[in-house]
């Protein structure tokens, strides 16, 4: 239950966070545990997931959270462990600055993890939430889903799709008690970020810690905001992109040229 103006309590809430062996997912899961929720965390990385679960007081369920079978298995495991699911955080993500050279399997994997994972989880959860009074669906998208990631074609496309799907869910089901949030950060100090090439542009924008992204999510939940923008300048860039698209594209191309120099 979230009461406007009061710190949120999630006591009794049953939460699942995917891709939560570390980074943003682990910080979000820890935030829910600290606020009284019962949390199942998931990741492909079994050992790291187990360690994180012990550290933060969550239950680990390792496996794929993107394909239809993996999502169904995770929903079933969380139902069995928690007795139901009130909040799903679709956080697992892949990809980075790869352009036209990314092959078909690479595009497919990025699409499955960054977009279809969310669709599959919503297909299982939203119909039952609509019947039982509501639920919360959180998508860790990216600023790349509102703007674009220099060098990252598949990442930008699939994160735009993730934002679009989250928007569609919110506008279709808000009146049935379903709350949706799209988290859209720029650089965050995680394994995924540290392994990315061309981080300089994002480093210049300010790199946040995962806990700051989690705090921004809880603030957005308290104020009932759909977009979670831990880097506030993303809102300004989003406005510029919409109102002066050619100026915005020319500016981004300059940054691209600088990154090639
Ligand atoms: N770090 C950043 O700068 C940044 C910025 C914007 C958005 N994001 C998004 O934040 C989310 C979390 O990433 P992170 O930065 O914390 O990096 P991370 O590498 O710490 O976390 C991503 C996790 O997802 C897991 N994963 C990948 N495919 C999976 C699958 N099919 N099933 C289950 N788990 C899977 C990985 O094993 C990994 O532990 C991602 O969606 C990422 O795109 C990150």
TrEMBL record:
Q: Which organism is it from?
A: Naumannella halotolerans
What keywords does the record list, in alphabetical order?
Answer: Oxidoreductase
Mark the transmembrane ranges.
Answer: none
Name of the molecule in the record: Short-subunit dehydrogenase
**PANTHER family this protein is in?**
5-KETO-D-GLUCONATE 5-REDUCTASE (PTHR43669), ALCOHOL DEHYDROGENASE, PUTATIVE (AFU_ORTHOLOGUE AFUA_3G03445)-RELATED (PTHR43669:SF3)
Q: Which InterPro entries match?
A: NAD(P)-bd_dom_sf, Sc_DH/Rdtase_CS, SDR_fam
- Recorded family membership: Belongs to the short-chain dehydrogenases/reductases (SDR) family.
List the molecular function annotations (GO) for this entry: oxidoreductase activity
Q: Does the keyword Oxidoreductase apply?
A: yes
Q: What highest taxon heads this organism's lineage? A: Bacteria
| A Pfam family hit | adh_short
């Amino acid at each position: 239950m979230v009461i406007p103006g009061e710190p949120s309590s999630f006591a009794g809430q049953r939460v699942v966070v995917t891709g939560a062996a570390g980074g943003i997912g682990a910080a979000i899961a820890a935030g829910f545990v600290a606020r009284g929720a019962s949390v199942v965390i998931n990741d492909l990385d079994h050992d790291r997931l187990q360690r994180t679960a012990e550290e933060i007081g969550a239950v680990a369920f390792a496996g794929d959270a993107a394909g239809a079978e993996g999502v169904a298995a995770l929903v079933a495991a969380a139902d069995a462990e928690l007795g139901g699911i009130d909040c799903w955080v679709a956080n697992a993500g892949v990809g980075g600055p790869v352009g036209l050279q990314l092959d078909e399997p690479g595009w497919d994997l990025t699409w499955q993890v960054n977009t279809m994972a969310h669709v599959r989880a919503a297909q299982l959860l939203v119909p039952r939430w609509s019947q039982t009074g509501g639920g919360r669906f959180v998508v860790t998208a990216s600023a790349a889903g509102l703007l674009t990631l220099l060098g990252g074609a598949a990442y930008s496309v699939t994160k735009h799709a993730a934002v679009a799907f989250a928007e569609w869910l919110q506008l279709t089901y808000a009146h049935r008690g379903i709350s949706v949030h799209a988290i859209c950060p720029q650089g965050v100090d995680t394994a995924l970020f540290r392994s990315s090439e061309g981080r300089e542009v994002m480093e210049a924008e300010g790199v946040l810690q995962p806990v700051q992204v989690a705090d921004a999510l809880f603030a957005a939940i308290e104020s009932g905001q759909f977009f979670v923008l831990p880097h506030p300048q993303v809102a300004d860039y989003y406005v510029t992109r919409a109102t002066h698209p050619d100026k915005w594209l020319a500016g981004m191309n300059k940054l691209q040229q600088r990154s090639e120099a």
